[in-house]
C-alpha cells in the first residue's frame, strides 16, 4: 500500500522544478562577468568559456527553456490567459531567442581568438556581459510575476501531468544529447572518409544533429565567412554550427 500523504501536503508544482533550475543558472552569472572582465583585459580562459557556453546551451536553453517553451507555454496557449499574461510570455520567449544570439556572439568571438585573432575580445566581453545581464532580469520576471499566476490556470491533475512531462523531457533530452555526441565522435573517427566522399547532390542541404539547424549551400553562412554557393564539403573543417557551435562533423546530409 502506498504511504498516506501528510495532511495538507501536495505534490511539488511543476514551476518549482523550473525555479530550482533558476538557482543553478544564477550561479553562472558572476562567472560570466568575471570572464568578460578578463576578455577586456586581453586574456581569457578558453576552456572555462567553453564550459560556460556548454552549460548555457545544454542546461539553460535545451533543458530549462525547452521545458518552458515546449510544455508550459504550449499548455498556457490553451488557457484563458490575460492580455498582460500573454504579453509577458511572448517577452520571455523573445528573451530565449536573444540569449541564443548572445551565445552565437560568444562562440564566434572565441573561435576567432583560437585562430589568433585577438580583435574579437571586446565582442566576446560584450556577449558574456549581455548574457550575464539578461538572465537575472528574465528569471525575476518568471519567478515573481509569471510562474505562480500561471499555475492557477491548471487543475491539480493537469499540474501532475505537467510535472511528469517535465521529467520525461529531461530523460529524453539526455538520450538525444549523448546520441548526438556519439554521432559526432564517430564522425571524428570517420572524418577522412567523410571529407573525400561528396554528397550525391552538390546542392544538398545538411542538418546539425545537435540543434537541427540546416545548412543550405545556396545561402551559405556569410556571417562566418562562408559565401553563398559553397558546398558543405568545401566548408573549412574548423567551421562550426552557427546556432549551437557543434563541429562540422556533427552534420548529416538530408
Q: Can you walk me through this structure?
A:
The protein has 254 residues and is mainly alpha-helical. Helices cover 63% and strands 3% of the residues. It has 7 helices and 3 strands; from the N terminus they run αααααααβββ. Strands 2-1-3 form a 3-stranded antiparallel sheet, with no helix packed on it. It starts with 13 loop residues before the first helix and ends with a strand.
Offer a quick outline of the entry.
The protein is mainly alpha-helical.
Features:
254 residues, mainly alpha, 3-stranded antiparallel beta sheet, 3 strands, 3% strand, globular, disordered N terminus
Strand element count: 3
Question: Which stretches of 5+ consecutive residues score pLDDT under 50?
Answer: 1-9, 189-198
Q: What fraction strand? A: under 5%
**What's the gyration radius in Å?**
21 Å
Amino acid at each position: 500500500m502506498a504511504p498516506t500523504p501528510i495532511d495538507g501536503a501536495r505534490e511539488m508544482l511543476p514551476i518549482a522544478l523550473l525555479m530550482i533550475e533558476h538557482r543553478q543558472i544564477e550561479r553562472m552569472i558572476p562567472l560570466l562577468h568575471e570572464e568578460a572582465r578578463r576578455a577586456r583585459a586581453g586574456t581569457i580562459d578558453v576552456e572555462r568559456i567553453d564550459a560556460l557556453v556548454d552549460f548555457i546551451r545544454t542546461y539553460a536553453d535545451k533543458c530549462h527553456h525547452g521545458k518552458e517553451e515546449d510544455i508550459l507555454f504550449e499548455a498556457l496557449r490553451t488557457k484563458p490567459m490575460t492580455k498582460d499574461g500573454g504579453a509577458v510570455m511572448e517577452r520571455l520567449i523573445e528573451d530565449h531567442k536573444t540569449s541564443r544570439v548572445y551565445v552565437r556572439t560568444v562562440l564566434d568571438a572565441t573561435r576567432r581568438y583560437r585562430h589568433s585573432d585577438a580583435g574579437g575580445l571586446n565582442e566576446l566581453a560584450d556577449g558574456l556581459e549581455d548574457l550575464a545581464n539578461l538572465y537575472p532580469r528574465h528569471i525575476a520576471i518568471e519567478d515573481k510575476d509569471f510562474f505562480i499566476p500561471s499555475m492557477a490556470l491548471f487543475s491539480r491533475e493537469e499540474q501532475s501531468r505537467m510535472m511528469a512531462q517535465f521529467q520525461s523531457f529531461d530523460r529524453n533530452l539526455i538520450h538525444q544529447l549523448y546520441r548526438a555526441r556519439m554521432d559526432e565522435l564517430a564522425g571524428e573517427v570517420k572524418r577522412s572518409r567523410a571529407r573525400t566522399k561528396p554528397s550525391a547532390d552538390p546542392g544538398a542541404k545538411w542538418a546539425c544533429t545537435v540543434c537541427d539547424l540546416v545548412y543550405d549551400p545556396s545561402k551559405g553562412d556569410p556571417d562566418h565567412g562562408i559565401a553563398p554557393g559553397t558546398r558543405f564539403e568545401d566548408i573549412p573543417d574548423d567551421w562550426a554550427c552557427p546556432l549551437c557551435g557543434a563541429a562540422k562533423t556533427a552534420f548529416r546530409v538530408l
